[in-house]
Amino acid sequence: MFVDRVDAGRQLAARLRGICGRDGLVLAIPRGGVVVGAQIARELGLPLDVVIPRKVGAPHNPEVAIGAVTQDGTTFYNRTLLDFLGLGEDELQEQVELQKKEIKRRMLLYRGRVDYPDYSGRQVILVDDGIATGYTVLAALRWIRRQFAPGELILAVPVAPTDVVDRLGEEVDRLVVLLVPEDFYAVGQFYQDFSQTTDEEVITLLGRPVRE
């Protein structure tokens, strides 16, 4: 159990100490992941930036994740779930386009720009506040590989279910997960305080002024 996201970040930083090199970079997934990532970056003296994949939900139940879309528009789908629901990719295109617009909106809001510095070849630590299905994290990992060709790609999260850990472990050079519980229902069950992170908090943690 974690007190809050700051506590989770401190515990992850302790595990990452000695692993991270001087060229390390923290890329956090908004919004909650930025709180965790900011704590890691602060304690380890690393720069902080964001990567913004977005969940693609089922048409009649948006909370059910059937895939994710990345910043360049690449989509990843749970093919088994698509077949089970009798859905084709064309039926999801409208939602994909909406999510791409939301990614751009958040990039400009949080960072002020959509392009990145040259992070090529660096040690990249992808951080979130926890993983449920893993599709947004998978999308982020594959986008990072294509975009930056990192020297080492590390995934660091406080908590994730066993099957997701096994699957995502194949995507990274190193995986750091503090809790891998057998009974997993939602990320929030492992936090005493899992209150929603605001856009203003994200902007502040990234070191940008908040517009009134």
Automatic annotation (TrEMBL):
This is Phosphoribosyltransferase. Residues 24-160 form the Phosphoribosyltransferase domain. It comes from Desulfofundulus thermobenzoicus. InterPro entries: PRTase-like (IPR029057), PRTase_dom (IPR000836). GO terms for molecular function: glycosyltransferase activity. It comes from the Bacteria. Keywords: Glycosyltransferase, Transferase. It holds the Pfam family Pribosyltran.
